[in-house]
Design brief:
Ribosomal Protein S5, domain 2; 2 domains; Alpha-Beta Plaits; four-stranded antiparallel beta sheet; alpha+beta; eight-stranded mixed beta sheet
């Protein structure tokens, strides 16, 4: 039996430039961090009944791989169970997530990375972290034709606080950021995260964003501004100017809302404006938009006032820290 732990993530700057509709023409640079909220996968080989037993938000027990309904499980199995010896034994996999799905924390990409890492261990393969991240991207973006970028798969695989450069051919370079321990501590302290209570599918939002990028010159100009914000965010974090970073979050969110009308609505705008009126310098809905988790940057001297006021909205706060391990096997027998 093996158990895999894969972290979720916060986007820190340049999100959306990781979509192929953008990077294939312009390249991409974005910032992201893995956090200590996880999806866990426990799996073992079933040598006797040869069934596929899958437990996620539902349970599937089937005799043949072709009968599996969960598209990510099915496609991952197709890559790893390739010969007659593989298919003469079954697989049992159970997954547990610490936060809701469809909430903007990169759960779909993390889920794919977790499945692949589990199978990589169960079948004694030797895929590198980059190979796992790229295979996860291929499954989601090519095989299943999802409107996905490369951020979620890469940050959940590598962990840490990272920059990622995507070349026009799709190759990804992992960039280590020079962020001091004191700044990391202040980031955890000042980036306050709350659940909106709104779950949403990211695919329709990303489809609309891709459509706008390909057809609208004004949207392309907005994307260039978002790309520039990624570089400005890196400079702010590495030079310890966290309040400047908070203001960049606000700028990013205001630009992002212009790209697609699916990214926000009146209820989201009301919460965001309320947070700013009581001390947040900036923030955004994480991920594609439309719901999920808010992140707000609040200077330390305004924490007490802000937290007392935000209670009136009955939003549940997420306590978080960084994850520096990325996808990890935490148990093996």
């Amino acid at each position: 039996m093996k158990q895999i732990r894969v972290p979720l993530r916060f986007p820190l700057g340049g999100g959306g430039t990781d979509l192929p509709s953008w990077y294939e023409k312009h390249g991409s640079f974005f910032l992201s961090t893995a956090i200590n909220q996880y999806i866990y996968f426990t799996g073992s080989v079933r040598e006797f009944d040869k069934k596929y037993w899958l437990s996620y938000s539902r349970v599937e027990v089937v005799d043949e791989m072709s009968e599996i309904k969960h598209d990510l499980f099915k496609k991952a199995f197709e890559y790893f169970l390739t010969d007659i010896n593989d298919r003469n034994t079954g697989i049992e996999v159970h997954s547990i997530s610490e936060v809701p799905g469809n909430s903007g924390l990169g759960s779909s990409g993390a889920f794919t990375v977790g499945i692949l890492s589990l199978l990589n261990s169960l079948k004694n393969r030797d895929l590198t972290k980059k190979e796992i991240a790229e295979l996860a991207c291929k499954i989601e973006m090519k095989d299943l034709n999802k409107s996905s970028g490369k951020q979620d798969q890469y940050i959940s695989t590598f962990g840490g606080i990272r920059g990622f450069k995507i070349n026009k051919n799709g190759d990804v370079d992992v960039v280590n950021l020079d962020i001091s321990p004191s700044v990391q501590k202040r980031m955890v302290n000042n980036l306050l995260v709350y659940y909106s209570g709104i779950a949403r599918e990211s695919d329709p939002v990303l489809q609309d964003q891709t459509k706008q990028i390909n057809s609208n010159q004004n949207i392309q100009d907005y994307m260039f501004q978002i790309q520039d914000i990624a570089y400005q965010s890196r400079e702010a974090l590495e030079t310890e100017n966290l309040d400047d970073y908070g203001l960049l979050l606000d700028k990013h969110w205001e630009i992002k809302k212009r790209i697609s009308n699916k990214m926000s609505d009146n209820s989201i705008d009301t919460i965001y404006n309320y947070a700013k009126s009581y001390g947040a310098l900036g923030g955004k809905i994480m991920g594609a938009g439309g719901g999920g988790f808010f992140i707000f940057y609040v200077p330390e001297e305004k924490h007490v006032f802000f937290k007392n006021k935000i209670k009136d909205l009955n939003l549940k706060q997420l306590n978080w820290d960084f994850d520096f391990d990325g996808v990890t096997q935490i148990y093996s027998t």
